[in-house]
Amino acid sequence: MSFSLYLVGFVLLTAGIxxxxxxxxxxxxxVTIASVIxxxxxxxxxxxxxxxxxxxx
Length: 57
Fold this sequence. Notes:
- The chain is mainly α.
- It has one domain.
- Helix content is 79%, strand content 0%.
- It has two helices and no strands.
- It has helices spanning 2-23, 28-50.
- It is elongated and about 50 Å long.
């Protein structure tokens, strides 16, 4: 549940950045590339932050 909530937040952040870039007149190709990179970073950090910790012991 926590991973999906994290991912939804990151998708909203990425959408906002993409909207700002399009409004600023950046080419759609560069907006798409930036969005894919941001979503990849979001997935990687989401997995790292929400995975279950190994019990030490």
